[in-house]
Amino acid sequence: MAALSGKVVQNVFIGQFYQQNRQFGTQYQRDSCVPYMRALPPFHGGKLAWTSNSSMQMRNLLKYQNGFVNRRTFYCNAASSATAIPSLDKVDFLKLQNGSDIRGVAVSGVEGEPVSLTEPVTEAIAAGFAAWLLDKKKFDASRKLRVSIGHDSRISAQKLQDAVSRGIASAGLDVVQYGLASTPAMFNSTLTEDEAILCPADGAIMITASHLPYNRNGFKFFTNDGGLGKNDIKDILERAASIYSNFLAKGYSVKASESVKKIDYMAVYTSDLVKAVRKAAGNIEKPLEGFHIVVDAGNGAGGFFAAKVLEPLGAITSGSQFLEPDGMFPNHIPNPEDKAAMKAITQAVLDNKANLGIIFDTDVDRSAAVDSTGRELNRNRLIALISAIVLEEHPGTTIVTDSVTSDGLTSFIEKKLGGKHHRFKRGYKNVIDEAIRLNSIGEESHLAIETSGHGALKENHWLDDGAYLMVKLLNKLASARASGKGVGSKVLTNLVEGLEEPAIAVELRLKINQNHPDLKGRSFREYGEAVLQHLGNSIASNPKLQKAPVNYEGVRVSGFGGWFLLRLSLHDPVLPLNIEAPSHEDAVKLGLEVAAAVKEFQALDTSALDKFVQP
User: Fold this and answer.
1) Which of 102, 242, 274, 448 can pair with 435 through a Cys bridge, CB separation 3.0 to 4.6 Å?
2) Is residue 3 within a helix (H) or strand (E), and if so which, with residue range?
3) Are 156 and 108 within one domain?
4) Which ranges of 461-604 would DSSP assign to H, the alpha helix?
5) Which residues form the Alpha-D-phosphohexomutase alpha/beta/alpha domain (predicted)?
6) Please, which pLDDT band fits residue 47 given cuts at 50, 70 and 90?
7) How much is the pLDDT for 254?
8) Do 229 and 255 sit in the same domain of this protein?
């Protein structure tokens, strides 16, 4: 590891912190900081000087600062600089929350989508995270807290990384930039213990908006406890709003971070993936030698997988495509659920006569595969495949999935594999948290996975890691060949033999018009819940249909040989309707039952459903 550390630590410039005993009175006037902050360490050049003594001052100050703000944080206007000062607009920070992530528009040019993730907004969010982290972590006078920062291939990445770095540094925390990275690697940086590469990080920030268009961006946050939850994100945004309000009142200017270190952490992360496959194959140096595996990174951050993981294991990767990072995503959306993306990797497998194809989303927390015949291994098939592997290792364990998984998957997991299927809610964090909860009450679960391709394993700290998920497949290929039990992707395909799949599977989106008078002052969420309540009541009296006896989200109903699920979107004024059936005719019958039940809700746009059920 020492040799590797020497390679990954780049030259760094460390700005000197300023004198501890400098008087704050005159500095307050120059930097326009609030008068409640006289116990803070001194400021210079718009940045907070930080020492072990001043750390304790900060902790003490935050306990009684509520007279100024209600989020227990601190603020200071940066000193003026020659850099152009961005204009400041009022911002509703809570609208940037997207469940357990933050999402917004970072690039102008798309009509009707004004920029919401400006540099000042980003800096305020980062400072809000720093304040949150200071509250959560136990104080240690021997060192400052450190935060690692990484980003995907988006064109706004560098600008936002700089703003995040300023926000973190202004709170007195150390900044460690990783550059192009994956979301799973950022979480791993909080677990790795190697001071030579400045690990572990106390907190980590990934700058990404997953598969969303080029003009979007956002943030995911981690500590060694995992990804932050919804309440944590709300807390951070409330802190950020207070910080930003001080920018509005006192002014804002851009000042380069005084202390930034740069690490090639991806070298460490990929080395660990390689070791995992070698170990599964009995410590063979090149367990994939002769295998032809093509990778499609969609011009996101996953291009590393071909050269840094597969090739060291002996695999042939010719024919891999779109490995170069390009934030305009010129070839297809980096999304394992996207039809064009899956068609692209399928064609690459067939054209190159490869044994296996692997595709990632933009930040590599989701993935899917294609076997040598061009059969897609995503959604229910991927869940079935990973479940088969996990249940071989942990017989009888519970598999937690999201709510839109098929009845055929339940039968496969429980009747063929001997496991238990726990169908929960949509949202990768919901699924992961539920698996953790089940373990806490004595029900063993080793896999939490969504149809979207988010998959987290207990053995991997419950991190939804698309690369690690694919490593589980590689482990199976390598171990099967090493033991003489098979060669090629047929080893994987055989594992999902017997999975019943519907002839028809559709998702229709019924939008709620928030300006329609039928809402009668209700929120879209209240209106949507009323729709679901009415649907549930109408189904109860229908002998042709049967409500699912155990259901955690929306209304799930079986009938006509298939099923439907109507639920309320996690974030948007939409009721997604999933229908699976053995024939189009049966799917239409299910759709007609829903249409009849919801027709009186005038604010609900049922045009997609109406079109589907038309003869």
Assistant:
1) 448
2) helix 2-8
3) yes
4) 466-482, 490-493, 524-540, 584-598
5) 99-241, 272-374, 379-480
6) very low
7) 74
8) yes
